## 1
Amino acid sequence: MSTIVECNNLSHSYGKSLALDDISLRIESGKIVGLFGPNGSGKTTLIKMLTGMIHDETGAVTICGNPVGEKSKAVVSYSPDRVAYRPDSKITGLLDMYELMYDDFDRNNAEDSLKELGIGTEEYVGKLSKGSAEKLQIILTMSRKAKFYILDEPINGVDPVSKENIIKIMLGNVPDKSSIMISTHQIEEIEQVLDEAIFIKEGKIVFHKSVDELREETGKSLLDAYKEEFR
Amino acid sequence: MNKRLGKLEYNETKKLFTVFTVILVVYQIICIILGLISRNTSSEIPSDTIVIITICSALGIIMCSIIMIKRFYNILFSAEGSIRLAMPVKNSEHQKVNIKTALIWIYIMFAIFIIGIGLTEVTSGERIYGVANTYRNYIESYTVMDRLPAPALKAVITIVFDVLTMMVIIATLYISCIFAVTIASRISGRFNILQKNGVLFIVVVVLYNIKALFLNNLYHIFNYVVNRVNRSPVPLSMYAFQLILDISCVIVYGLSAIAMYRIGRSILNKKLDI
């Protein structure tokens, strides 16, 4: 089992406001990790640091042994919290983009998944419903054979059937030794698939444990543990 | 430059810009035909139409530049940036690729525009911007006023430097817009300012004023030097004057473009908050 993500003493501020406060974290290969915390706790800031959108001089982040940069971005597949494609983008254009920029993108898999969900490749992103657009984004993200997947709010604001579909897509295509980090508020929807959970509060990690361990030690569900921590 | 990113930028812009370029070519052909017509008629309609088409062509080129700037703006200011900045390239590659692709398209369109104006001047017999007679005017100046040897060669050299100067000025104008977007993004991210477009507006105004002040003073310095030289026993020839002006513009604009590009690159690679 190798280490996919390692963060040491990571801090970041927006002006005078400290978003991440001395975070140290390690995620091993083959794990599905949930990242939970209230709004403004630092989840998105941490994700932005892992994806290379923010650089910070304080602390160190490595992904598969590489500092965040071109090499790490090549092995990280990221789905942001909002649909990030322009409304005038054609789905086939997005498939071309992913195929061009990522060697590990499996176009056939993406097209099959889109077909299964009834999303035509000649359609424009702007014409899709919210649920379909979210599914599109997840399909494109998960159709890469990446080492680390980061999904920010993948099931936020979609109907229950779409949620099921998205979770199925999330787990269906993941290579064995790859890890997934899922940031969401929908704990009860996602708890069953998680190996580990991280709680982040005011920029600090207050909890990082295996979900099975939590249940064995305390008899509580992840949702109960979350409520207890953040009440 | 990352080849894949360059190819992606080209693929995503080629459809729209090819259409614009074809429209521009059609516009210039219409102007050339109208030029011929205007020679054989006393009506003002053909020449007025040429003016309108010329203005539309110029606006079209400016609009294409704005579209390219908006593409870069979307990377730094919108949700699309989440996907683009997560691509396996350095963040500054997006700037490099955008500038290169934009300038190639702008130069192609500008060349079509200028050649179109020149040919329209030939067919209409009218001096619109003096493009068609540039070469002849330079030769006349160098032969009659300066009495220089090889005036034809010197005219060609001057035109080459004029074209180079124009290309550098266009590049600097475009790079300064990209630089403004980068600086505005950095400032609004660093201080967590939500009114990002307001910050962009202020940055553009400040940058424009700095450039205007700087270039205005430079122009006065240049004039002063030239006047001093012209009072000397051997005054500057038109040819030398033109070359010095062109080379000075290339150096000044070129250096400012390089500086803005490099500062923008540093910002994107080291400290960029969205």
## 2
Amino acid sequence: MRQSNLYVILFAIGLTVVFGGALSLTSVGLKPLQDKQVELDTKKKILGAVMDISTIEDPNEILRIYSEKVKSMVVDINGNEVTTDEKGNPIVAEKVNIQKNSKLDAKDRVYPVFMFSSGSEGVDAYIFPTFGSGLWDWISSYVAFGPDLNTVKGIAFDHKSETPGLGARITEENVQNRYVGKEIYNDQGELVSITMVKGEGNTGLSEHQVDGMSGATMTAKGVNAMLEKYLECYSAFIEKTKSQNS
Amino acid sequence: MSTEIAEVSEESAVALKTKEPAEPLLSKRRRRIVSDPLNEDNPITVQVLGICSALAVTVQFKPTMIMSIAVIFVIVFSNLITSLMRNIIPNRIRIIVQLAIIATLVTLVSEVLKAYSYDMYKILGAYVGLIITNCIVMGRLEAFAMANKPYDSILDGFGSGFGYAWIILVVAFFRELFGGGTVFVGTPLEFDVYGSIGNLLGTTLQTNGLMVDSIGAFILLGMIIWIQRSKNGYVEH
């Protein structure tokens, strides 16, 4: 009886229903918590690019600081502000899915811009999200520029599954700090982006280069390509804002 | 691997027949179920199973600890569930059933991590999912839980789980120490060993890049196996 075909089939169906049901229940039940974690994670990364938030334990405090100090807008490839998508729905910068967006053609994407002001007036930092591929899976970053839109104020990397201890080190503070103060435009005013060089402990780096991570050359290559591509896409907005500011 | 499993199942079958009706909760035999995998029958160093994850997640101590907890959880509960179901599982699809049990538990762990410890979820990412393919888990289901009572299976799960955990934790400790120059990063015990020694001597100590590579884990694992076998006198036949 235990070996009959009917029993086997019924057993398999029963098993699938029970396990599938249990998994769906958990997934639905944990969804709100997971969404909140993702939202918090996004805002943490945006803020993390410009200020030290590692000492703030309370998630609500982070959300409060964010709503107080960060304004956001969405621009297209030409640097013009977009407020609605093609269906006429309003676009919220924080809700823009960078991963989905990166699959579109560069000219069809929307580009969120986050503006951070520590005081009440002016913008102290412009923060651009970027997205690309590392060695194993996607990598992303929030890169913050000072009011001159040239000098890096801070950068916060994220990744899906870079190797722990190797490529995953891009999320470490000492690696991210290597970008601070570097510049993306050269003296001729051309966009050159910032390159992470191969190997660690390099000396004599220019203002467009940062020290690499040993054992993670492929991740570094991904980071370089990502920054270069996305800065290119943001360059229209950068030029526009620069001429407005001056 | 197959001979290993055959041996174990024979062993457990004998154990089942000779069992006394009112065996104490922690009888000698049951203590052995837990203690054997810790040393003489260790899943990693003696059975040489679960090597892939032992190499992949052991760069730092904290992710390794989370991984160990996840594996212990999965192995204990899949052992329990399989053991409870052992009399109704059709023999012909038993492997698929075992896999379904493991996959369900692993997905649960992954979802819970995502909801409560998002940072760890990001670090461990793919590796939590890969517990499904960890041969230790399936090996225990097939070799032990299919033929033994639930309580014994739980003990066996803990034994194998801890046997796996202590090895990868030792490997992770040394890899982090030599590869990163630190110990226990991300925990309250965090300490920058190389930094402090460097300050003391007034130099900067160079960390060993080999240790952050999987090769470092291989070397350490080989050394642990060497030490253990020379102590136990275990020889492969």
